[in-house]
Every structure is written in C-alpha cells, then in structure tokens.
Design brief:
By secondary structure, the protein is α/β, with parallel strands linked by helices. The chain has a domain of about 90 residues: ANL, C-terminal domain (GMP Synthetase, Chain A, domain 3), CATH 3.30.300.30. It is about 35% helix and about 20% strand. It contains 14 helices and 20 strands. It is globular and about 65 Å long.
C-alpha cells in the first residue's frame, strides 16, 4: 500500500486502508436478500440514532405531522422525506459533538449546500473513489490529473499540501484553452499520470483537443463525474488514450457513491454507505454513516431513468445499480395545457442513441424549447425524421431542434441537461 495512504490515515485520524478493503469486499460478497437486510437494518439504526439524540430532527418530524411517541415504530415509508431546504430551515439539526468537518455540495443548481459530516462519513469519500480507480489497475494515491473547478492560482497552503500528498495535479476546467491542454499533455507524460478525473464536459473538450491535434497519450483510465454522461468520450478515449472511461455519481450529502464497471450497464452503488429508494424516478438516499446530520429519506434532487437494477452484473458484482443519472428534479417546464413535465420524459430516447454524442434542452423566454444535439453523424433532417414524432407525442409546446451549437455551462463549470433563459 502506498506510503501516502499511511500518512493520510495518520493526518486524518482514520484507517483509510481498511475502508478501501471493506469496499473491495462489498462488491461481490452479498445476495439480494443480504443487501436488503443490511441496508434496512443500518437505515433503521441511523434513523433511531437521530430520533433519540437529535432535537432538531425531532422538531422536523413533528413539523411533518409525526407523533414522537409513535416515531420509533414508524414504518419506513411513513418516515417523512426531507430536502435541502428542510435542512436549511431546521433549527439545531446538527449533533455538533459528532462533526468531523464541513463540506459543500458541488452546486449543480448554482446553490451549493454546506453541511457537516461525521468522521466515518467524511473519510469514506476517497476509499470509495479508489474502487473505480482499481478497475483501471490504478492504486490509491497514484498520480492523477484532476480537471475540476479549482482556482489554482489562489489555492491555500493547506490545499497545496493536500494535493501534494494526494498526488493530484490540478487544472482548471474553466480554462480549457489550447495552451492549457498542451500543458496538460506535458504533465501527463512528465509526471507519468495514470488517471484523469473531471467533469464530463471538460474531459470531452480535452479529448477533442487530442483528436484535433492527433495527439496520443497512454494512461490507464478516465473517470467522469458531475455532468451528464457524454458518449463520445468513450470512443475518443479508446482511440487517443488507449483506455476506458468510467462514469461515477456521488452525492456526499446523502453518502451515495455509484460507478460504472467495464460492462457500462448502470452505476454500481456502494450499499455500505447508503440506502437508496427510487420514487417517481427521484433518487432518495439515507446516509448510513453520518451521525452529525440526518440525511434520512433525503431527496437528493437527482433523477434516474427507472428502478434499481438488482440482478448480478456480468462483471460479477452483486451491487445494485442505478440506471444512470438523468438530471435534476428542477428540470421541469409547463406545457401549453398547464401540465408540469420533466425534460427527462421526452429526452429519454436520446440517451440510447449512440450517434447523439451530447444534447441539452434550453427553455427560451418561457415560450419554446430548443434541443441542441451534438452529433458528427446526423444531419438536422435526420434528427427531425427520427425524433420529431416522438417528441410531439409528449410535448405540446413548440420544440425546435438545432445541431452542434455551443453547449451552455453554468458559472461553476458544470453542464446542465436543462437551462432556462430569459
């Protein structure tokens, strides 16, 4: 095991190596019944912990109509769902004695949410990431190029030390110029980078740069996150990086971590971290390790395409799988008849079309919807013939198709599936 694991375990006062080994074992070891029993028991235990020890959570339950003298025996599906706003509005819902650190969500809604984590919850993040790296033959704390929304010029000394110990070489996803991408290639070769990690959209820009400059690099893998999956990345990575791409999904506020395997058939969930429920395609998570703040039946804001896949994967993992992450629960528009619709319901067919590399829906001035398709195979006429009828069956509002226009990014660098413009 890398000496960095030992040093970071001492500095962070936790056994990162054991957490990693536990994650490795959890991938293959359990039947469906064992998984269900495990997550149900752990979820009930964390619920009872906060019920008995967290006055703020008690107040939340009362505000939702729960009688405290009946709460311990409440059926799981009767426990109230909670949102970020519920947690923001609650008084003293944090058990301060259990707080290990505070962190923020990625802010895909441009409203980052700051929350506390207890020790096991906080320390579990990178041992979870290492499971994805392991598929590529990459060991913990091997050299990684991190392509995220960092402002490298103003990093604190503590952050610089952390990145040095973690073996991270960070570049800013806002600055995807030819000059920066050429520098990234130099770093990959000079530092013997084994893995690239970053937003799907920024990875796509880099891979297109490799294609356009006919540059080939040798790395062991690419991990994409945060944005919606871009299918072109998989093709370009195999041709210009001699490696595969693995998408991952994490919502640390709900302690969910899920990742693709080499079969690319859904996202495997580490169920020792969370219990997942799917309600009307919404991802509902219960953080099994966070004793500092109750993320219990928590509405993450993310949507998936359908129910959990519980059958054993062809890769051999018995972990349950998400059918991808389809976007946010805020991706709602009003149709002409007054109905509220999610963009997911009419964009779902696009996800299975391998000739559509990426797409984005834009609502302009509360009037028409514009679907921007990125494709190097289709003409606009091809898309009209293939999808106009399917869209018209679902959406009554005017919908315009456009091809290969510029994709809109948020201020934090992420690329949303749905954008509202005035």
């Amino acid at each position: 095991m890398n000496w960095r694991v030992w040093v970071m375990s001492i500095l962070r006062k936790g056994n990162l190596r054991k957490m990693y080994k536990d994650n490795l074992a959890f991938q293959y070891a359990h039947s469906q019944q064992e998984i269900d029993n495990y997550v149900d028991e752990r979820a009930r235990a964390i619920y009872l912990y906060h019920l008995r020890n967290n006055p703020g959570y008690q107040q939340f339950l009362v505000s939702k109509g729960v009688k405290l003298d009946e709460a311990e025996n409440l059926a799981w599906d009767r426990i109230p769902l909670m949102t970020k706003q519920d947690l923001r509005d609650a008084d003293d819902i944090v058990i301060k004695s259990n707080v290990y650190n505070y962190t923020k969500t990625g802010g895909s809604t441009n409203e980052p949410f700051e929350y506390p984590a207890s020790k096991d919850s906080a320390l579990s993040m990178w041992p979870s990431h290492w499971i994805v790296h392991e598929q590529c033959g990459v060991k913990p704390y091997s050299p990684i190029l991190m392509l995220m929304a960092y402002n490298n010029a103003t990093k604190s000394l503590a952050k610089k030390i952390y990145h040095w110990l973690s073996n991270f070489y960070t570049y800013d996803s806002f600055l995807m110029t030819d000059s920066q991408m050429a520098q990234m290639c130099q770093t990959i070769r000079r530092k013997k980078i084994q893995l690239i990690y970053g937003y799907s959209s920024s990875i796509n820009q880099f891979l297109r740069y490799l294609r356009d400059t006919d540059t080939h690099i040798n790395i062991k893998g690419i991990v994409t996150t945060s944005d919606n999956r871009i299918k072109e990345n998989y093709l370009l990575a195999r041709e210009y990086c001699a490696c595969d791409v693995f998408d991952q999904y994490g919502a640390h506020d709900g302690d969910i971590f899920a990742f693709e395997c080499k079969c690319h058939d859904g996202l495997h969930i580490l169920h020792n971290k969370c219990k997942i429920e799917i309600i009307d395609n919404a991802i509902i998570t219960t953080a099994l390790q966070n004793t500092a703040m109750p993320f219990i039946r928590y509405v993450s804001g993310d949507m998936t395409h359908g129910d959990l896949i519980k059958t054993k994967c062809a890769c051999g993992r018995t972990l349950y799988r998400l059918q991808g992450v389809a976007g946010r629960n805020t991706y709602i528009f009003k149709d002409l008849d007054g109905r509220e619709l999610s963009v997911i319901y009419f964009t779902y067919p696009f996800d299975s079309d391998m000739d559509i590399l990426q797409y984005q829906v834009v609502e302009r001035n509360d009037e028409k919807l514009v679907v921007n398709f990125i494709s190097n195979k289709y003409t606009l006429d091809d898309i009209e013939k293939k999808y106009r009828h399917q869209v018209a069956e679902v959406v009554k509002r005017p919908v315009e198709f456009v091809l290969n226009e510029e994709i809109i990014r948020l201020k934090n660098g992420k690329v949303p599936l749905f954008v509202k413009q005035k």
